[in-house]
Design a protein that fits this description.
Length: 580
């Protein structure tokens, strides 16, 4: 007779890539299929499967989540140019020109939009971990950002009609050509931004020369994987200048150059600041936030974190840069936005200038704000919104919706949670430098990505935070906020599987949370008890000082830490689970 716990409802499993996938397969076997009589609906979302299916597996994942309501997603790769070339060489029958964008882009945005979900991330409540407190006072780091272009010099407004927005381009032929179209509803915000490639290149020369003059290591951060036609264009131009004019000079000066995606780089620098560096963030909106944060950290240092940090990241509407149309200008000409047949804005651009058009859904924004207030009420949290409403109409719509929902709650004699609206740079500063005991920080997609990675890194590791995507129809997708751990995967391959370093905490927590929700929906008390025991076993393991290498020196008693590999960590958790 089977001793497995019977589970009636199926669980959707979305597989990923690299070291995260090695860990995911092991823990599913160790803590799910060996102990539960459960049906797993598994979808392979690896980079290669997305490529060979021309993105069809992403749609299958969305359909499975919408049908069954609860899933777990593992981290997946977003392929860069080199990796795409390798896939094309491996599968010569596939033509790049025929690929759907879902075949090569990260599936995350499509899944969040497909299920209409927003992300909530917060620290796992470990008892034996300290927050990371690097010595920031007088640290010699400077942030360099562009003073022109980008979202600070954009045009935005609210659509005054329900209709079609078109991005038009008029070049040397004089005939308008439609580049992009999307449907807007009345009240939806939209924005057009661009950057001058000439100014980007001029900034790059100043940036690299400044680093040489001041003898600083060089860091450059953009989001070229998600915004390839905008950030990707800037990265290519900046790195071409580095390669041709500065690489040899930098090496001769004994300096180093580092490029990284801006969210991962921000987490790395804030939690482990270099001694002396020039940090280049060309995007002026992200750049100014990080500039102000670094200035404050250098002056006041980093306080001890005594409370969990929760971040609600709006992603369901596909708004901001993550849901944008972005492309380099095909030639010198004029870029226009036409809404419902009426020209709303036009500006001159030159060939290869990066262009970005984005919009958001007012209804999705309202659903998100309601979710924020609901979560804050349930968990007794104070809310700190970050909006640049005094400068851009795009953000003003958020402010008006917040007040609208507040009035709706007042009409029902339901007091809204305590909340404040502040500039995003102040929101980031408060979250890092002045965190209240129970703070919830709602942010738009790109800000939320950067902020949550910084917060998780300061909490100990990206693997010590939990993450869930919530949809208004009740669909829940639990995930780990970290990536695929490419460097650890290379070690694993080079050692023929003997070196297996990976912290599975966030994945285990995602599994336990999904099982707990499944138990609640079907009234399954044995499953609820198992999910609770699995969480407790994870937390007890770390409390015993048994940790993976990324947490070395971060416990309350570093002298009594036992550092183990991925398999040793999972086995220790299983041992504690069996005791319970």
């Amino acid at each position: 007779m089977s001793t497995k716990i019977k589970v009636e409802k199926p669980l959707v499993i979305l597989h990923g890539d690299e070291m995260a996938q090695i860990a995911f397969e092991r823990l599913l076997e160790q803590f799910v299929t060996s102990r539960l009589d459960i049906k797993l609906l598994e979808v392979d979302l690896s980079a290669e499967k997305r490529f060979t299916s021309n993105g069809q597996v992403v749609l299958e994942a969305i359909d499975a989540l919408k049908e069954h309501g609860i899933g777990i997603k593992n981290a997946g790769m977003t392929v860069n140019r080199s990796q795409l070339d390798d896939l094309l060489e491996k599968h010569p029958q596939i033509k790049e020109s025929e690929l759907d964008k879902l075949a090569t882009k990260s599936p995350n945005g499509a899944i969040r939009k497909g299920i209409g979900g927003n992300i909530t991330r917060e620290d796992i409540e470990f008892r034996n971990l300290t927050s990371v407190r690097p010595d920031w006072v007088n640290r010699d780091i400077e942030v360099d950002t562009m003073e022109s272009g980008g979202l600070d010099f954009s045009y935005s407004e609210l659509s005054n009609a329900t209709g079609v927005a078109k991005v038009m381009f008029v070049g040397s032929s004089g005939d308008p050509v439609e580049l992009h179209r999307r449907t807007l509803k009345k009240g939806d915000p939209w924005m057009l931004a661009n950057n001058s490639l000439e100014e980007v290149e001029a900034w790059a020369h100043r940036f690299f020369q400044r680093a040489l003059d001041e003898k600083r290591d060089i860091y450059l951060g953009l989001k070229d994987t998600v915004v390839p036609g905008y950030d990707g264009v800037m990265r290519a131009a900046i790195e071409a200048i580095y390669e041709s004019d500065y690489k040899e000079k930098v090496a001769a000066a004994g300096l180093s150059y580092h490029y990284e995606l801006i969210d991962a780089q921000a987490a790395r620098i804030v939690s482990n600041p270099p001694e002396r560096a020039l940090w280049g963030v060309p995007d002026n909106v992200s750049g100014m936030k990080l500039y102000k944060l670094v200035q404050q950290l250098k002056h006041y240092g980093l306080p001890e974190r005594k409370a969990n940090v929760s971040i609600s990241r709006m992603s369901a509407g596909g708004g901001d840069q993550y849901g944008s149309y972005n492309t380099p200008a095909p030639e010198d000409g004029i870029i226009k936005v036409v809404v419902d047949g009426v020209e709303k804005h036009a500006r001159m651009v030159k060939a290869q200038d990066p262009i970005l058009f984005m919009s958001n859904d007012r209804d999705a924004i309202k659903d998100w704000v309601k979710q924020v207030f609901r979560d804050a009420s349930i968990y007794k949290k104070e809310v700190y919104f970050g909006l640049k409403r005094e400068f851009v109409n795009y953000d003003e719509v958020y402010s008006s919706i917040i007040l609208e929902i507040r009035q709706e709650l007042a009409a029902l004699d339901t007091p809204p949670p305590s909340f404040m609206i502040m500039r995003p740079s102040r929101q980031l500063s408060k979250m890092i430098c002045d965190p209240p005991r129970w703070g919830l920080y709602p942010a738009q997609n790109l800000d939320g990505d950067i902020f949550s990675d910084i917060s998780a890194a300061l909490g100990g590791s990206l693997a010590t935070a939990s993450s869930v995507i919530k949809s208004k129809d009740g669909t829940l997708l639990y995930e780990a906020p970290h990536g695929t751990a490419h460097d650890l995967y290379l070690q694993y391959l080079e050692s023929d599987g003997k070196v297996a370093n990976f912290n599975s905490s966030a994945l285990i927590f995602a599994v336990a949370n999904a099982l707990e929700e499944l138990a609640g929906r079907e009234g399954n008390q044995p499953l609820a008890g198992y999910a609770e025991s699995l969480k407790a076993a994870l937390i007890d393991t770390v409390a015993q000082g048994i940790i993976t290498g990324d947490l070395k020196g971060k416990t309350l008693d570093p002298e009594n830490e036992t550092v183990v590999d991925m398999y040793g960590f999972l086995d220790a958790i299983e041992g504690n689970l069996n005791k319970s």
